[in-house]
Amino acid sequence: MKKLIIAIDGPAGAGKSTVAQILAHRLRYNYIDTGAMYRAITWKVMKTNVNNDIIAIENIAKNIKIQLDYVDGKTNVFVDGFNVTEEIRNPAISRLVSEIAQIRAIRDAMLQLQRHMATAGGVVMDGRDIGTHVLPNADVKVFLTASIKERADRRWRELTEKGFIVNREELEKEIADRDKADSEREFAPLIQASDAILIDTTTLSIEEAVTAILKNCEERSSLV
Ligand code: DC
Q1: What CATH number does residue 191 fall under?
Q2: pLDDT tens digits, residue range 194-224?
Q3: Which 3 state secondary structure label does DSSP give 9?
Q4: Which residue of 41, 112, 128 sits with most ligand 1 atoms within 8 Å of its CB, as the best mutation to test the pocket?
Q5: Domain residue limits at 124
């Protein structure tokens, strides 16, 4: 089967990374978590205390070295050689990342890097603007979504299991705010690509979502 490029977009908590990693594993493809890249740059912005200094932020965007190592079903994220895999999932980063991801210089830098990472094909990339902007010629495009209530429940369980104490209602509000910021931003907003298949995981299991996408991959690979 030809090595495809698979783009998966959707809001926070829709199941993108779980579905994308299972697909990557089954197809023996690379998995690229672009949300982790925006979190990584947010980590650096926070660490360097640049606040709203746009020139300093642009410099970070130009010089940052982000490395994603996807091995045995886990992505390790490195910023300038430091392993930030766990830290970038902190609620403080989740609260700031949408704002940082709106900055044009940051999006331009990530766009170049993400396109470069996909050049060899055989890749599953997930994010918000992959099918519309980063890889508009992707072979398979998926828009994965779920109700806000279901997505908030999933994130709450995930964070609680990691030991964070989070208020369920506040979390839902934060996710809704993040959806709004991601969908309404000027450059490369979160929208479903016109040629993407829509999969709603509110009542669908992960396995059912994966099966639907694999079926689409088979259909596509017989055409390309
Ligand atoms: O998928 P995630 O929650 O880890 O993503 C973190 C943030 O990064 C999300 O709020 C929006 C931003 N993002 C983006 O703007 N474009 C992408 N391709 C991926 C993520």
Answers
A1: 3.40.50.300
A2: 999 999 999 999 999 999 999 999 998 876 6
A3: strand
A4: 128
A5: 5-217
